[in-house]
Amino acid sequence: MDEAPPTPPVIEVVPIGFVHGGRTEVIDDQWGDVVADIVLDDRFPTDALDGLVEFSHLDVVYVFDQVDEATITVGARHPRGRTDWPRVGIFAQRAKGRPNRIGVTTCELVAVAERSVTVRGLDAVDGTPVLDLKPYMTEFAPRSPVRQPEWSSELMREYW
Amino acid sequence: MDEAPPTPPVIEVVPIGFVHGGRTEVIDDQWGDVVADIVLDDRFPTDALDGLVEFSHLDVVYVFDQVDEATITVGARHPRGRTDWPRVGIFAQRAKGRPNRIGVTTCELVAVAERSVTVRGLDAVDGTPVLDLKPYMTEFAPRSPVRQPEWSSELMREYW
């Protein structure tokens, strides 16, 4: 018998909380003014968010849980099905139908209250599971000049 | 009997690949010049990375799998144990001992070859499981002025 290929390990994650409010419908564009709360699970002590208000922005790590796992792309596709844009690999685009269905977005912090953070510009709908919150630090921005293809700037034109 | 509190759902994720090379030792600082490969699992077709080379930077989502889950902070702590810095919540710092142990770092893309991406400035050691790669787009940077506390800039001074 041939040796079976090694099976990659499964890692279990548990949402730290959920998105409350904001949009209920999955829409591609105009996320910039959407305001929503991220409400932590009550297993977290209320000091889990202490000091976050000193930051203007935070990175939100979440799961596109409404994406049917059967529709996930593992190879290449045209972003948004636009055949006038190049066919690129799933890891060369930020489409939601991706392996592990993880989204990461830098949002503006509006307010913090006990176990809740209000954010502006989170591109995730009401009910989305959140895996992590990280304060945004300028030192985590690119430290060399940024280059990106024209199609990606076109795609982003109406996003916020 | 009292009603049990709702149990948060468990979400299973599977590494898309692993970090190869770079550092083998977990060290806090001087990550900026570390060069490592991210090698995709061979269940991915080779076009999964097509077009990534058009971007100068990418976001790497990974798991701090060497962190003992028993040591994870869910409330507040002094970053790096520095009592001269404020005690802040785990979600107001980027420490690795965090719920779900997820790291997100924007790295410089050095090269792409079939199922492998070479990056500079990834703060994850050899063998780290990677959950996602996303191209960095300037449109995902903060769209309003950034503010952060002094302790965070001090902490980051020697990081890269």
Outline the structure in words.
The structure is a homodimer of 160-residue chains. The first copy, chain A, is mostly beta strands and 160 residues long. Chain A has a domain at 17-71 and 104-138: Elongation Factor Tu (Ef-tu), domain 3, CATH 2.40.30.70. Helix content of chain A is 4%, strand content 30%. Chain A has one helix at 150-156, and strands spanning 11-13, 17-20, 35-40, 57-63, 76-77, 88-89, 102-113, 116-120, 129-135. In chain A, strands 2-3-8-7-4-9 form a six-stranded antiparallel β-barrel. In chain A, strands 5-6 form a two-stranded antiparallel sheet. The longest helix of chain A is centred in the last third of the chain and has 7 residues, at 150-156. Chain A starts with 10 loop residues before the first strand and ends with a helix. Chains A and B meet through β1, β4, β6, β7 and β9 of A and β1, β4, β6, β7 and β9 of B.
